[in-house]
Amino acid sequence: MQQLYITAVKVRSGTDEVTHVTLGVADGDTNRWAEMPTVQDVDRAIAALDRGHPVRVLKATSGGATPGPEVFKINLPAGRSTIGFKKTDPQLATWADVPAI
After folding, report:
1. Domains held by the chain: number
2. What is the pLDDT of residue 62?
3. How much is the pLDDT for 41?
């Protein structure tokens, strides 16, 4: 099964609004990238969420990386959207804890 992972983010200055993500697709059977992470507009992650595809943050560890928290869509004023993630890991409390683009 393929899984979408966010490895880095760009956040609008002075806000928590994610504008861009480094997004890749991993093959869950082989734990290898099916599509290497590339910088994308956050709308690509939002479109995947809207289609029902799970998106997660990929958390860097000393031994490589592990799946981090699930991502969800946040609707903003004026019809814009961004993403947030479930606060399940004390090491990933805000987007500032995720590598920046």
Report:
1. 1
2. 79
3. 97
